[in-house]
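Example record

Each entry pairs one chain with its bound ligand, coproporphyrinogen I.
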Amino acid sequence: ENDDLILPKDFPKLKNDTFLRACQGQETNHVPVWCMRQAGRYLPEFREFRAGKDFFETCRSPAACCELTLQPLRRFPFDAAIIFSDILVIPQAMGMDVQMVAGKGPTFPEPLKEPEDLLLLQPKVDVNKELGYVFKAITLTRHKLDGKVPLIGFTGAPWTLMAYMIEGGGSTTHSKAKRWLYRHPEASHKLLKMLTDVIVEYLLGQVAAGAQALQVFESHAGCLGPVEFQEFSLPYLRDIARKVKDQLKESGQDVPMIVFAKDGHYGLEDLSQSHYEVVGLDWTIDPRSARERTGGKVSLQGNMDPCALYAPKERISEIVKKMLEGFGTRGYIANLGHGLYPDMDPENVGAFVEAVHTHSRHLNLK
Ligand code: 1CP
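Structure tokens for the complex follow.
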């Protein structure tokens, strides 16, 4: 592949800016919709394309990432695309080995055990060198999208990445990682700071490569209580948004940022005042109370229970209508409260997208 052919310039003109307008709280004809994990195993074409290929090898191929990002957009009129990649490319860039083990998920053969292990991490990560493959994937995909919809870049948040680096994989209790918070608070802050520095550079690189919005996934907010969230998650989430925005402003750019702290209800007020344009919500929060608690200061994204996609299509339509009435159609991006599962029926995903578009157009006419 000739890398010169995918330079981040002269991108095709954007034809559907509904998602970007909703991020900024502007009026739209319909409520924009996309799904977390829309590029995923629920699509037969995804399973076929990924078959027999190593997951992180796939992540390192810009052409493969581009194809997987575009697949769901060929089927459904989503209003945004999200680049195919993974949050765990950052620990890899910092020098850790991460493998995708079938049936088990991401696995670190040598997780961090003690504070001394921080010395094993790269102190200064050159994101262009270590994560340039993601930037190339973004540039290529932005060209291939041909302006159909905006392209979202993303990262894991510091606490969520720290949790994986210490647990060595997925976990229900996160007790090894939380042990660090209670036993080694200084080392924990040191690691969170190291991650924050890489994340800021990584997000800026994604924008330079062509990302038109950025989502920060704090997927493991829920295992922290309000006190630990205040100390170990929120300050870093704020730092990331502030630093990215300050840098972008210097070059006259404005890219909306979304923070998604799964199961972090207790942080909703704070998250709505953390320099992000959009707060993502899981399905355990009622739309009206989320609006009240965020005081109309930010746009909201979410939050249908992904499992509602197992319901018959008529029921999905009713659930979507209620959700839209709860959030209102302004400053709102419809999504699920978490990612799609592999056993979900693509037809029902289509029904979800259609229900959002149809009901929101009706509500806007009222
Ligand atoms: O082989 C496969 O296809 C494995 C499944 C898979 C996929 C499709 C993994 C493994 N990652 C991905 C892609 C991915 N990961 C995307 C692609 C874009 C899209 O949404 O369409 C994104 C945004 C992510 C982000 C991600 N990875 C998160 C944050 C979102 C969330 O789910 O909370 C997390 C926590 C991960 C880690 C991860 N990667 C894969 C799995 C199965 C997991 C979760 C592991 C666990 O905690 O148990």
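Residues 36-41, 50, 55, 82, 84, 86-88, 105-106, 154, 170, 217, 219, 262, 339 surround coproporphyrinogen I (CB under 6 Å).
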